[in-house]
Amino acid sequence: MLKQQGYHIVTAVNGADGVEAANKEKPHIILCDYMMPIMDGVEVVTTLRKQPEFDKVPIIMFTAVDDPQQKLTAFNAGADDYLNKPTEPPE
């Protein structure tokens, strides 16, 4: 959906690759799944937030899990928002 809107999209198959891609690409926003192999979303957010260049980059956790405790964990790690899959494009 974002690509159809003209955004440049970079994907990763796991959390560690996501951190590597973020360091290489320096994105303006990061969408991160909570449950990923190698590094989960909380580890990704925590790792990126330790780096000054990602201090102000919005990170949105985008996941199928709708659990209040998991949301709190994501926010405490530094996520800016938490969206549940599936979602509608305007959201």
Structure report:
The chain is α/β, with parallel strands linked by helices and about 90 residues long. Helix content is about 35%, strand content about 15%. It has a 3-stranded parallel sheet. Helix 3 (about 70-75) links the parallel strand 2 and strand 3. Helix 1 packs parallel to helix 2 (about 40-50). The longest helix is centred in the first third of the chain and has 11 residues, at about 15-25. It is globular, with a radius of gyration of 13 Å. The model has no long low-confidence stretch (mean pLDDT about 95).
- In round numbers, the mean pLDDT is 93
Number of distinct helices: 3
Structural class: alpha/beta
Helix content: 25-40%
Radius of gyration: 13 Å
Give the termini separation: 12 Å
Residue fraction in strands = 5-15%
Assembly state (oligomeric):
single chain
User: SSE order, as H and E?
Assistant: HEHEHE
User: How many strands appear in the DSSP assignment?
Assistant: 3
Q: Quick one: overall form?
A: globular
| Main sheet overview | 3 strands, parallel
Which features characterize this protein?
91 residues; three-stranded parallel sheet; globular; 33% helix; alpha/beta
